[in-house]
Amino acid sequence: MAPTATSPPAMPSSESELLIPLISLEPLLTSSSTTVETSQALLSAFRTSGFLYLTDFSSLIPPSLVDSVFIQSAKFFARPQSQKDDLAWTTARSNRGYVCMGREKVSQGATKEEVAKDREGGGEDLKESFEIGREGEEGHENRWPDRIDKEGAEFRLTMAIFFEKCKEVHALLMRGIAIGMGLHGGFFDEFVRTGDNTLRLLHYPAVPPGGFEGGKRVRAGAHSDYGSITLLFQDDRGGLQVERPEGKGGWLDVEPRKGTIVVNAGDLLARWSNDVIRSTKHRVVEPPLKGNEQEEGYPPRYSVAYFCNPDFDGWIEALPGTWEGEKGGKKYEVVNSGEYLVQRLSATY
């Protein structure tokens, strides 16, 4: 059970708990005396595994809202394929709409030829998704299903509220990262005002027995995220794995923990920090079948990811304190956030 504000987390008892710590959002919400301690814990997690479990966020994102998001997500993916296809994703710049199974391939480092060959052999990622961006971006409107029926209107309202609540969590975590890195707390505020983020609903459909034999197929191939940080809400099925820190090798299970958000750093934040922060590869595999599943097959899995980015008009360069003097200088050129993310997305689809 995730710790509450009145019951601090126990000491780590496993490698997973040691490398992926439980960290409370409350000190950043209240600017308490433990804000600096929490900020340092955030930075420590991002420097080691690149992942953490976030707790005590219910004043911003109540459990009832998370439940509603999962319910609405499942209803959307249960729609007829023709309705989903009518809301199809179009361009990397817009990055909004429905993505059918097999269109995205996130396995990192593969060439387009290798991806095509992998798909021919049944190696596509077994998932479909729906992407939602901020409202009001001219020329890049969200592809809501509210014009289809009343359920579509309820879906739109739920996701719009959730998007804004996650945006608030993003701003708080960036404030914590700034303090942890010895910067003033408002350092990143100018980079997160607009909220050029992406809410992604994910459905990994049921698979018959034997569907994962041979290890060719996965739910989602090994990759790192593109932006600054990601907020991930999991169902109870599991399957998320994180690459262990250098020198340890292999994969570490990120078990679902009720009342937590899995938070990880992305490539752009690693670049921004001059690699002080670690953007870790991760993947989604299918846990072994249990009990009746041996005959019935693998059940569906749902998750919700909120990809946080610096606003698209922001210019990203190595942060103060990460490159001066004997620290080796700046490893990366200055990049525009929007152009960088469009480039990465274009290579994915």
UniProtKB/TrEMBL annotation:
Keywords: Iron, Metal-binding, Oxidoreductase. Residues 195-310 form the Fe2OG dioxygenase domain. PROSITE patterns: FE2OG_OXY. It comes from the Eukaryota. Pfam families: 2OG-FeII_Oxy, DIOX_N. InterPro entries: DIOX_N, IPNS-like_FE2OG_OXY, IPNS-like_sf, Iron_ascorbate_oxido_reductase, Oxoglu/Fe-dep_dioxygenase_dom. Belongs to the iron/ascorbate-dependent oxidoreductase family. This is Fe2OG dioxygenase domain-containing protein. It comes from Lepraria finkii.
